[in-house]
Amino acid sequence: MYVLTVTAEGRTCNSSQSLKVIIRSVPCIPESLVSSTSCSDNVVTMSWVSNEAVSSELYTVQAFSADGLFSDSCSGFGQSCDLTSLMCGVPYTATVIAQDSVCTSAPSQAASIRTVPCVPDHVTANVSCQGNNLSVFWEESAGADFYTAVLEDSNGQFTSCQSMNPTTCTVNRLVCGQTYRVSVTASDGYCDSLPSAITDVHSAPCMPHNIRALIDCQSSMAVLSWQPGTGAMQYTATAKSESGHVLSCGKNKTNCELTGLACGESYNITVLAEGQTCNSTATMSGHLNTGPCAPQNVEVQYSLSIGQLSWDRSVGASMYTAQAATDLGSVLSCSTSDTSCALYNVSCSQTYDISVTAHNNVCRGTAVSASTTLNTEPCPPQNVQTHLNCASDVGTVSWEESLGAVSYVAFLEGRNGHSLSCSTTSSSCSVTGLICGAVYNTQVRAIGEIYNSTDSETILFTSG
């Protein structure tokens, strides 16, 4: 600002000064224009240096994007002002001018403005079930040089991944059974954007553990139980035998019943935990071994007082017990690891119900064969007596009937070699043709449907 007066100069004297007139020069161009970006709200403070000692000038900052589509401005009487309406992720160039009531300075040297990167949009997350890895995707943000995906799990623990890729990054080896809250921020190395909208994603459920199996030998059923896996919604237990037999059970409990187990099998047990996005599988240590199959084709080879039993080998059996029982409760048995054994001291005139039971270290006494019947030989006739009719020279032999006998034969063996016999279905029979004065050894044999008795005790019979 200048004060102008005019004085007239004569040859000898000068006039007095005229009235003072104030003259303003054009405002000086502001210098050292710089920008400072607030990362939290994308407000840019523009500051400059003024050459005026006491300034009454109005300063105006104008900022334009490189393509001219966006602009913002601010004004103030000091040496700074704030640009508050800048677009995120768009670089601007700004100048400042000084204005008084009459004139406006030329624009200052341009200053560059870096705005905060835009918030990533359309964030999605996918879990790779095989490795329990998480891939995060988003749309590219204006102004970003790299991105950070932040994952917060159900326990408040944080995991992150950074990527120069404009649309994705991956976090490996997620913790099982967690719900992750995922957000993405964009960065240019100076400022970070606000976090994106949060999206939830579920990692694979933790594997069930402590799997156990308890078999019921009577019903060919097993109860499976396990400790739950975090994050599992339901479970499916599967049993697969070496022969390919498959059974399954389960839903939303930590136990289930496997029915229809095959005999003589060894099952591998797995439990599948089903989560919202992925599944996990655990395998029971060891195997579920079932009871043996019942013996088949039981056969009896019988000779007096001895029953020789045989049968086909049963799948899964390590030991066999054969048992023969009568209606009166008499029981004979034999045990073996082979497929045959002998029953001794088998009684005459008995009907035996014979069965063979297979055992192993899992089940005993439940795998019983179909029964087969053994009708033993009649017992030897008892109380054998003889009678001679002297008038007719007819000899009669009598005895007590034997249970199970269908007929009888009486044998008379003379000491002189002369032999006679008679047969009957009753308890006596008669012989003729006796030699007088001969002594006969007399025995009776009971004839059965299959087997015959041994001969009775010998009775001496003397003819007349």
From TrEMBL:
InterPro entries: FN3_dom, FN3_sf, Ig-like_fold
Fibronectin type-III domain sequence ranges: 29-118, 119-206, 207-293, 380-464
Annotated SMART domains: FN3
Signal sequence region: none
PROSITE patterns: FN3
Domain of life, source organism: Eukaryota
SUPFAM superfamilies hit by this protein: Fibronectin type III (SSF49265)
Protein name, UniProt field: Fibronectin type-III domain-containing protein
Organism the protein comes from: Cyprinus carpio
